[in-house]
Write a sequence for this structure.
């Protein structure tokens, strides 16, 4: 499965139906002459109007929903960086010998992974980044220079 590039501009719309009940009240106007007139309140009319509301779903989130329905969740981790104090949830999905990693923050970035032993290499990555997952599903992050733990990266398994 080839994943769509996250820079797609198209935004498919999902329509949801919203019923709005509007009540109209009207009062009759009073004349300004000296004659006293009764002010009558007309009957209240109820009108139901159907309004279509556009809900924007990004193509990335749509692809993520399809992925989760067609692939099995292999593992889930919180990846954080102690230097910049940021983190995100990372999931890996499996179908046969195919592995897809997902950063579930923002645009649901998906990356195809090539599994070699316990290492999961990110396809088309210029920095040689990969994940090493042991038998207990503990993850360590690497790039071509080695273990990224020394640069503040860590991954905590989510049960």
């Amino acid at each position: 499965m080839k994943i769509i590039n996250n820079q797609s501009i198209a935004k498919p719309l999902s329509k949801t139906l919203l019923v709005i009940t509007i009540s109209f009240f009207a009062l009759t106007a009073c004349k300004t002459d000296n004659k006293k007139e009764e002010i009558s309140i007309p009957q209240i009319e109820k009108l139901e109007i159907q309004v279509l509301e556009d809900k924007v779903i990004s193509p990335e989130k749509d692809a993520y929903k399809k992925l989760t329905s067609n692939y099995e969740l292999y593992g889930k981790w919180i990846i954080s960086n102690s230097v910049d104090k940021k983190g995100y949830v990372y999931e890996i999905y499996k179908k046969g010998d195919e592995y897809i990693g997902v950063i579930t923050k923002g645009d649901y970035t998906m990356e195809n992974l090539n599994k070699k032993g316990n290492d999961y290499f990110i396809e088309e990555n210029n920095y040689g980044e990969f994940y090493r997952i042991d038998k207990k599903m503990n993850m360590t992050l690497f790039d071509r220079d080695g273990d990224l733990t020394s640069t503040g990266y860590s991954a905590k398994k989510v049960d």
